[in-house]
Amino acid sequence: GIQVEQSPPDLILQEGANSTLRCNFSDSVNNLQWFHQNPWGQLINLFYIPSGTKQNGRLSATTVATERYSLLYISSSQTTDSGVYFCAVVDYKLSFGAGTTVTVRA
Amino acid sequence: ETGVTQTPRHLVMGMTNKKSLKCEQHLGHNAMYWYKQSAKKPLELMFVYSLEERVENNSVPSRFSPECPNSSHLFLHLHTLQPEDSALYLCASSLLIGDTEAFFGQGTRLTVV
What we know:
The structure holds two protein chains of two kinds. By secondary structure, chain A is mostly beta strands. Chain A is built from no helices and eleven strands.
C-alpha cells in the first residue's frame, strides 16, 4: 500500500508564530486530504487538495502531486490550532500518516 | 453538524458483552468506512462498504462484525472483545470509493474492561 510520512511528529509554537507541516507519499494518488483532530477525537476536514494551492483563513495547503508531497501552512497560530494534524492520501481508500501534534502556547 | 453521526460517543463494555456501534450519514454518500485509532498509532482501516456491499475487510478479527443495511447506515457489532480493542472507532463516508472527499463522524471511544 501507499506509505504516508508526516513531519515533524511534534511541533511546539508560541502564539502568533507561523509553521509548515509536511506530508510525503510513496506513490501516485487520486487525491489528498488534510484533517485536524480536535481534543474530543473528531476529524475536521481542512482541505481536499489533489494539486495546487488552497487557502482557508489562516490555513493554506499546497500539493505537488508530481513530486509526491503536500504542505500545510499555519499562519499567526492560535491556541485553538492545537491538536493533531493528519494527512491522508486517496487511492481507492484513505491511507493516513502518523500525524503531527501541534501545541500552541499562549 | 458534520453530516456523519456516530452513537454512542462513549462505551464501556466487559469482555463477555455484546454491543453495537452505529453510524448514520445524511450526505447522500454511497461509500462508508470503519477506522480504528489506537493510542499512539495511525488510523487503521477496518472495513469498506460501497452501495451496501463490503469491498474490503482488512484482516480484522471476527469479534468485529460489520453490517450495512442501506447506504445511510453502518453498524459495527462487537462481541467477546479484548482489552487491547480499546480505542477510538471512527466512521466515515464519501460519495464514491476512491477520489472523493471523505467526512468523519465524532467517533466512539470504546473501553473494554
